Every structure is written in structure tokens, then in C-alpha cells.
From TrEMBL:
Key word Nucleus present: no
InterPro entries: FAME (IPR029235)
Pfam families the record matches: DUF4619 (PF15398)
Protein name: Uncharacterized protein
Taxon lineage: Eukaryota, Metazoa, Ecdysozoa, Arthropoda, Hexapoda
Species per Swiss-Prot/TrEMBL record: Schizaphis graminum (Green bug aphid)
Region: Disordered, residue numbers: 22-48, 83-107
Biased composition (Basic and acidic residues): 98-107
Top-level taxon of origin: Eukaryota
Keywords from the UniProt entry: Signal
Keyword Nuclease: no
Range of residues in the leader sequence: 1-16
Amino acid sequence: MLMRMFVCACMQTAIAFSVPLTEEEESVVKKHPPKRLRMLEGQQSPPLTHEMLLEKMADAENRRQQILSQRIESAKTLMRPRYNSANKMNADDALVEDADKVGDEDS
């Protein structure tokens, strides 16, 4: 390992760097990997087969269709006309007025 010393002129302190001369020496990260990488190494998943991929794709398509049907149902409920008491009263008044007109035409 090659050691170099540099002196910083502004602070008057020395800084040391370790530079490996060969690539045989492993890095510190490879010697002591972070916890999340160690956990991932411990998990062994089975190799993917063509059938497994097709099954996963079919499941994803089913989920997409379910979401789409939920959105369609939601849109249908939003498109339904809503009757509040004011609209209902106006509709009733229109029916009464129409009945009066029919009665006037008969006489």
C-alpha cells in the first residue's frame, strides 16, 4: 500500500491517504457491507421461469382490470343526477303546472 502525506498550507496539518497498489486488496465496503446489503444477500429467491413470469403478468393484468372497473363504477355514480329538495320541488311544480294546463284544455 502506498502512503502519501500532504501538508495543507492553510491549516498547517498533515493529511494521509491510503492508495492500494494492487486490485487484490478488497475495499472496506466489501469486507463490511451495510446492513441492508447483508439482508439482501441472505434472501435467496428462486430463479424465475417463463411460467412464473406469465403468472405474475396475469396477476398484474387482473389488478389493472379491477382498478379500471372500480374507476368506471365511481364515474357512473358521479354521472347519476342528484336530486336535492329544491330540484325535487321544481320538478313537482312543473308536474302540477302541466296538470293545470291539461285541465284548462279540457274545458
